[in-house]
Amino acid sequence: MSGPSSENFPDLLPIGAAARASGVKVPTIRFYEEIGLMPALPRTEGNRRLYSATHLQRLAFIRHARELGFDIEAIRTLLTLQDRPEQSCAAADEIASARLIEVRSRIAALRALEAELQRMVDGCAHGHVAQCRVIETLSDHGQCQFHNGQGENLGIGRNSSDLPSFSGTLTQRF
Predict the structure, then answer these.
(1) Residue 26 in contact with residue 13, Cβ under 8 Å?
(2) CB–CB of 33/79 below 8 Å?
(3) Three-state SS across the chain?
(4) What is the pTM of this model?
(5) Contacts of 171 (CB under 8 A, 6+ apart)
(6) pLDDT at site 148
(7) How far apart are CA 12 and CA 74, in angstroms?
(8) pLDDT digit string (tens) for 111-137?
(9) How far apart are CA 145 and CA 124, in angstroms?
(10) 163-174 pLDDT per residue, tens
(11) 79 with 37: CB under 8 angstroms?
């Protein structure tokens, strides 16, 4: 008995058409199949994968979850929940809540980084490199409020004690 063909099943798409329709690149689709986010697919007599509307919806779900920053294991769990709609959505809520905490932490770290960069720029006299606040702050890690303050507390950046200390002016140009 022969396998399905896209001619016999016009609702089924080969991988290239599925990639265009879903917005997911062909190698990424193959990767999702390899790691089990996509189910085993029907193949043509020529061993080409065929994708249904359900597969395209699943690819769109995965793509959207990745765009929102969910990791592969979270997506795997969310897909399992989606496949069993009678379950409580508590696990989905927990996954989304954890992602929200991560995003808020990154936003706080980026705000701290923004403040440090603004402090450096504001302190720059726009004169010579010898008096440049940007170069001075980058040369002396201890002057960086981001690393000695909020950024460090959020696990971003390194503690100044972990880095070698440089004193004096910058004499060598790279």
Answers:
(1) no
(2) no
(3) CCCCCCCCCCCCECHHHHHHHHCCCHHHHHHHHHCCCCCCCCECCCCCECECHHHHHHHHHHHHHHHCCCCHHHHHHHHHHHHCCCCCCHHHHHHHHHHHHHHHHHHHHHHHHHHHHHHHHHHCCCCCHHHCHHHHHHHCHHHCHHHHCHHHHCCCCCCHHHCCCCCCCCCCCC
(4) 0.68
(5) none
(6) 64
(7) 28
(8) 999 998 898 888 876 777 777 778 877
(9) 16
(10) 333 333 333 333
(11) yes
Distances (CA, A) of 113 to 10, 121, 135, 138, 148: 53, 12, 16, 13, 11
Looking at the DSSP bridge assignments, the partners of residue 43 are: 49
Lookup: tokens for 39: 């189910």
Q: How confident is the model at residue 65, as a pLDDT?
A: 96
pLDDT < 50 positions in the chain: 1-3, 5-6, 150, 152-174
- The pLDDT of residue 42: 80
